[in-house]
C-alpha cells in the first residue's frame, strides 16, 4: 500500500498539465501513487501528460491513468480516482495547480507526528508564473471551523492543500459525488471535517492558479448553480442525520440562506432551490431572509439583515 495517493482529474488543461505534473513527479517524498482521470477532455491534455510521464521514468510505475467512457464532471472524476487509489493518505490536486516540491513530505511528516485524520497546510495564489498572496491554514477549534464551513463564505472549504487519512473517508462513506461539480469541495469537506481530528501547518503546500478561466467550475451557469444547491442539500441532510444535539443547526440554516441568495442574485426562481433542497430552515432570522426574497425584496437589502446576523453569530462562536 502506498503512503500517499495523489488524485488528479483532467479536463481542458493542456496549457497547465505539464507544469502541474512536473511538480508532482519531482516531490521529495518517494512513496506516492499518482491517479489521473481523463474525464473525456477534448484537448491535448492527456497527450502532454503522457509525454511528461515519459520524462520521469523513476515515477512511471507509480502512475495510473484512467479513461472515462463519458464525461462525468469533477465530482465523478474525483470519485473514480479515489476508487482506483490505494494510499493510506489521500491528497487532491487540481490539474492546473502546482505543489511546492516538499509539500507531500511536510504533510505526511505532520500527519505521522500528530496522528491527525487531516493535515491542513497553507497555500499561495499562483498568478503570472509566480506565487503571490499567502493564505495560512485556519487555526480555529474543531467546532468553530465546522460552523464557519457550514455558514459558507467565511473560511475556505477547499478540498486541496490537505491530506486525509483514507480510513476516515471509508469508515464514514464520504466521497465525491457525481453530479456535484460546482461546490464539490464544500460537499466533501463540510462532511468529513465533522468527524476529523485536524492538525495544521503554516508551510505553503499548494499553489492555487488564479489565471485559468477555463477550469471545471469557473463560470456561474444554471447547471453550476444547480450543483451548488445539491451540495447544500447533501451537507444539510448530513448535519440533520448526525447532529443530534443541534450544535450546528444555526450554521446550517445560515448556509442554506446563502443558496437562496445566490439564486436570487442570478435571477433564478427560488422554486428551483425548493425543488432540490428539502432541508427546512428553522431559525427565525434565516426564515425571514428567505421570506423577504420570496416577496421580491432586492438581494442587497436582504443582505443587510443576513450579513448582520451572520456576523453576530460568528462573534458568539468565538466567545464559546
UniProtKB/TrEMBL annotation:
It holds the Pfam family Glycos_transf_2. It comes from Segatella copri. The keyword Transferase applies. CDD domains: Glyco_tranf_GTA_type. Gene3D superfamilies: Spore Coat Polysaccharide Biosynthesis Protein SpsA, Chain A. One of its GO terms (molecular function) is hexosyltransferase activity. This is Glycosyltransferase family 2 protein. Keywords: Transferase. It comes from the Bacteria. InterPro entries: Glyco_trans_2-like, Nucleotide-diphossugar_trans. Residues 5-172 form the Glycosyltransferase 2-like domain.
Amino acid at each position: 500500500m502506498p503512503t500517499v495517493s495523489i488524485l488528479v482529474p483532467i479536463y481542458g488543461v493542456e496549457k497547465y498539465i505539464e507544469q502541474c505534473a512536473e511538480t508532482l513527479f519531482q516531490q521529495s517524498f518517494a512513496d506516492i501513487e499518482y491517479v489521473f482521470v481523463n474525464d473525456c477532455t477534448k484537448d491535448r491534455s492527456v497527450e502532454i501528460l503522457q509525454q511528461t510521464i515519459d520524462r520521469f521514468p523513476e515515477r512511471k510505475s507509480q502512475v495510473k491513468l484512467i479513461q472515462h467512457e463519458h464525461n462525468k464532471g469533477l465530482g465523478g472524476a474525483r470519485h473514480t480516482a479515489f476508487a482506483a487509489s490505494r494510499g493510506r493518505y489521500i491528497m487532491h490536486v487540481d490539474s492546473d495547480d502546482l505543489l511546492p516540491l516538499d509539500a507531500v513530505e511536510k504533510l505526511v511528516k505532520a500527519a505521522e507526528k500528530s496522528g491527525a485524520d487531516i493535515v491542513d497546510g497553507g497555500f499561495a495564489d499562483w498568478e503570472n508564473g509566480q506565487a503571490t498572496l499567502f493564505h495560512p491554514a485556519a487555526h480555529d477549534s474543531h467546532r468553530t471551523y465546522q460552523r464557519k464551513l457550514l455558514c459558507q463564505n467565511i473560511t475556505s472549504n477547499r478540498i486541496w492543500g490537505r491530506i486525509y487519512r483514507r480510513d476516515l473517508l471509508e469508515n464514514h462513506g464520504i466521497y465525491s459525488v457525481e453530479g456535484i461539480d460546482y461546490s464539490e469541495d464544500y460537499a466533501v469537506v463540510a462532511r468529513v471535517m465533522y468527524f476529523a481530528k485536524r492538525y495544521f501547518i503554516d508551510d505553503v503546500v499548494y499553489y492555487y492558479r488564479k489565471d485559468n478561466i477555463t477550469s471545471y467550475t469557473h463560470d456561474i451557469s444554471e447547471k453550476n448553480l444547480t450543483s451548488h444547491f445539491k451540495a447544500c442539500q447533501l451537507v444539510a441532510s448530513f448535519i440533520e442525520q448526525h447532529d443530534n444535539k443541534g450544535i450546528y443547526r444555526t450554521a446550517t440554516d445560515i448556509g442554506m440562506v446563502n443558496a437562496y441568495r445566490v439564486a436570487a442574485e442570478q435571477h433564478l426562481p427560488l422554486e428551483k432551490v425548493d425543488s432540490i433542497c428539502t432541508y427546512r430552515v428553522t431559525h427565525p432570522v434565516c426564515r425571514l431572509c428567505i421570506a423577504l426574497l420570496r416577496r421580491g425584496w432586492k438581494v442587497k437589502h436582504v443582505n443587510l439583515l443576513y450579513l448582520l446576523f451572520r456576523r453576530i453569530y460568528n462573534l458568539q462562536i468565538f466567545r464559546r
